[in-house]
Amino acid sequence: MCGLVALVNSKKGILPQALADMCQTIAHRGPDGEGFAFLNTDQAELFDRDHLDQPLASEALVGLGHRRLSIVDVSEGGHQPKTDPSGRFWVTYNGEIYNFLELRTELIELGHRFKTHSDTEVLLAAWAEWGTNCLDKLNGMFAFVLYDRKENTVFAVRDRFGVKPLYLWHGPKGMIGFASEIKAFTVLEGWKARMDDQAVYDFLVWGLSDHSRRTMFGRVEQIAPGSMAVIKMGKPPHFQKWYQPRPSSFVPKDFFEASEQFHDLFMKSVRLRLRADVPVGTALSGGLDSSSIVCAVHALREEGIEVSRHAFSARSKNKDFDEGDFMQAVVAKTHVDHHECWPDADGFLHNLDQMIWHHDEPFSSASIFAEWKVFETVGKSDVKVTLDGHGADETLLGYTAFIGPLLAGHLKAGRIKEFKREWAAQRNLHGRSENWLRAMTADHFLPNWAGSLLRRLAGKTHARPNWMELSRLDANIRDPFAELDGKGKGVLAMSLGQLSATSLPMQLKWADRDSMAHSIESREPFLDKDLVEFILGAQTSHKLHDGVSKRILREGLKDLLPEKIAQRRDKMGFVTAEELWVTQEKPDDFYQVVEKAVDVSQGMLKPEALIMAGQMTKGQSAFHTRFIRMMTFGLWMEKFGVQG
Fold first, then answer.
1. DSSP tag of 621
2. Is residue 181 within 8 Å of residue 359, measured between CB atoms?
3. CB within 8 A of 256, min separation 6: which ones?
């Protein structure tokens, strides 16, 4: 994993210092090396920071920059930017292609020769052989900018699920910039930090981010997961989708057969993601997903695969938020070297400014501080790569949000017996209230317009909150979840919506920033393409039934998991006691931070926001994550000099 930057100027001329300054802002993503290239259709030249004064720069159409975190082929052979033997294709690339060895063998049989053991060289050969069709062959996480000198065309490509970030800035006079993080654009001439009204509205009101190409900065957009931007020199970027997740049609209908195939696909995914020339560890929250990964790695270690025994966890001094007992069950079974950290309110407040900077945009929950602390702990060890559990909840129906479409689906299909059975299971196993179950079912049973009307009549709609200055925003005032989350369209539609918009993209963005802030690569075994499409194609009852979620995982991995984990019914993950921090442990400190956030928000946050925050800190109203949203939003405006 690394960091990349690129500048494209069809009028010719790339400022070397601008490219170098962009790279410096993301040095944390790649502390092991740096490189640059100036390119046009006639010439190409590599250079380093000590030799920035290049005559070619004034004639360059494209400038590529790279910060390297050495993971595969840690020799000079992995240095970037890189070109193919013909010099036609040049790339700056971030990520890992896990099946690069298999692709390398296939390409050798087709006549290609390789000088290094890097996956970057394999990517270039694959592109030279198959063009954009090579993307279908890649199993990995990646973002790259590739320049085809013959066709004078730039391709900016992002992996299927958006594990690796890639942003595009529309600069002045037709200049286009690309970068792994938005902050890289802030050093460029012509940069203006202005809000994107729609993205800000969606975040402040609904807690959504990364659900579209928009970012909270105007003129900056992200390349969407499974998409690419194509720039034919002199023309604006053309965006196109190259991957859309599709449920597999080859999933056995028999539950036990499906569970066995899940086991095989999951183990294959974990095995591939252990490929590295540096130590690989695991994150362990104590939940089902991370425990499955730790136990799978242990099983592979028992088979003879060399991999470190390090596992990293966040603990809490508050027992309601601590999963230490579950962690210890996994540690006892796998004999890992267990490293613990203890995120707390003081630590969060102390690191808040740094987190705002690394995340580039405001965030909606203090729970990401637990992940931040885990990667901080990893960074103090010799481990450079961790395996993490993102993507399981969205596909295996781990979130409580899936209960509504499940119950509504039974009703719509006339499966009254199944409806009553699931209703009873949710009541008995999880203690869900009758009112909660009715509301969840109605939300997915009624048409969107009817649900919205009922919420307005009940006074529960919050599309127009009184604590922010809506008149300053040119935004579509609506509930984005109704469209993005597949509301009313069933369990599969919601699963796809969470994968592509309302859950996973935000989670992956946080994981990328938290890990790369400490120069650690995070890999996601649950986001293997074959595994994802297999799970999507499995029957809903194989995933959620009788109040039990992730059923094919529990059955398929039951011989690997401690019984305490396999039978676990609650869910936590990497969380913090943010409500207790705000309302009991440090109410005055948090109130002061919100007070500052309101003050520096240029009127976007109204005095009512401070009143609401005061009521939360005093326990006069229920805590809500909009407290964290308001806090990080104002601090973000100040940190990046954002103008409304």
1. S
2. no
3. 555
d(CA 153, CA 62): 10
- Tens digit of each residue's pLDDT (9 = 90 or more) over 9-49: 998 888 899 999 999 999 999 999 999 999 999 999 888 88
Smallest Cα–Cα separation from 420: which of 431, 433, 411? 411
Phi and psi torsions of 5, nearest 5°: -140, 155
Domains 3-241 and 255-396+503-566 alike in fold: no
Residue 638 CA, distance from chain mean position: 25
Rounded Cα gap, residues 306 and 293, in angstroms: 16
Q: Tell me the CATH number for domain 3-241.
A: 3.60.20.10
How far CA 423 is from CA of 141, 398, 436, 570, in Å, comes to 39, 17, 11, 17
Determine how β-strand 33-39 pairs with β-strand 44-47: antiparallel
9-33 as b/e: b if 16+ CB within 10 A: bbeeebbbebbbbbbebbebbbeeb
Nearest-angstrom CA–CA distance, 209 and 221? 12
Q: Domain 255-396+503-566, what architecture?
A: 3-Layer(aba) Sandwich (3.40)
0.90 exceeded by pTM: yes
The per-residue pLDDT for range 377-400, each reduced to its tens digit, is 999 999 999 999 999 999 999 999
| Residue that is written with structure tokens 């802002």 in the block | 25
Q: Would you kindly state where each structural domain of the chain is located, as residue ranges? A: 3-241, 255-396+503-566, 400-502, 578-640
